[in-house]
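Structure in, sequence out. Go:
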């Protein structure tokens, strides 16, 4: 993977750089590549880890494309400045296919891989042995318990959740998730780093879905249940919430946008862990859509049909 770099205007403070300067991101999908990009823009030396060179190339292309968009906005009438911005940012980012080697000098490791507890456990066990004692660990999981993920490491005081939102370079929010064992020093380092990469940070305990998804997923599910009961049509539910509650998008539209495979996986996981909570009951119509591969906007059909 060609090297990638730093934003012309460094957003980091000297005190932050002393704590978090070298960042390793595990996973180069939409979330991981976005996290790597904003970290590099914020002044960090970033190593992006994927399982093979082909996936690294795909992540590289995604970051290069996104940096071009950012450069056009920052340097509308300055093509030389835009080129310098992209080149400098890219120079601070490199790729690796070896997680253990990639964390040898990391101040922070952010995991953004598949939402599977056993896979995450295997990764963090290896990272815990390979990373130096100073290294902070974080997971970008959107639905799994941070405490459960951290159960396999010895540095629980240096572990937490850093939940970004898609697309990472655009969305301003960063949820910082605390577990009881997390030290105050670790928490403050997470907050300072979040601010340094220009995110607005909010904090919560290790509750299912944290803040946003804990409220959003049950809201979507309840709207779908209302539709399933025949209380109102999908269109009327969406119109009602947009005009009556001021939401930019209705819950059924939002479900299609997020992807039914994603929401179904989240709520199924919560249902298995908390079977007595009716808010976490899976929706039958959503399960059918997933089985039929009608996942929403990304496949051209969900509860609504879309022209691809």
């Amino acid at each position: 993977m060609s090297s990638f770099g730093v934003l012309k205007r460094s957003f980091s403070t000297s005190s932050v750089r002393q704590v978090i300067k070298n960042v390793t991101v595990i996973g180069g999908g939409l979330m991981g590549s976005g996290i790597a990009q904003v970290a590099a823009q914020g002044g960090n030396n970033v190593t992006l880890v994927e399982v093979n060179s082909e996936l690294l190339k795909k992540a590289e292309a995604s970051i290069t494309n996104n940096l071009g968009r950012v450069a056009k906005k920052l340097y509308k009438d300055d093509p030389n400045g835009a080129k310098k911005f992209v080149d400098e940012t890219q120079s601070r980012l490199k790729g690796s296919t070896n997680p253990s080697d990639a964390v040898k000098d990391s101040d922070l490791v952010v995991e953004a891989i598949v939402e599977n507890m056993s896979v995450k456990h295997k990764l963090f066990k290896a990272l815990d042995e390979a990373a130096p004692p100073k290294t902070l660990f974080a997971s970008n999981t959107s639905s799994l318990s941070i405490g459960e993920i951290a159960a396999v490491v010895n540095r629980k005081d240096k572990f937490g959740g850093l939940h970004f939102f898609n697309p990472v370079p655009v969305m301003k929010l960063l949820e910082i998730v605390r577990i009881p064992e997390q030290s105050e020093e670790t928490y403050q380092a997470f907050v300072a780093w979040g601010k340094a990469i220009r995110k607005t940070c909010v904090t919560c305990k290790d509750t299912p879905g944290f803040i946003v998804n804990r409220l959003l997923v049950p809201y979507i599910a309840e709207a779908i249940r209302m539709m399933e009961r025949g209380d109102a049509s999908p269109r009327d539910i969406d119109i009602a919430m947009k005009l009556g509650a001021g939401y930019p998008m209705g819950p059924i539209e939002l479900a299609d946008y997020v992807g039914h495979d994603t929401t179904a996986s989240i709520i199924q996981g919560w249902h298995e862990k908390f079977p007595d909570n009716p808010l976490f009951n899976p929706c039958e119509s959503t399960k059918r859509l997933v089985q039929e591969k009608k996942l929403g906007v990304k496949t051209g059909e969900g509860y609504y049909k879309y022209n691809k």
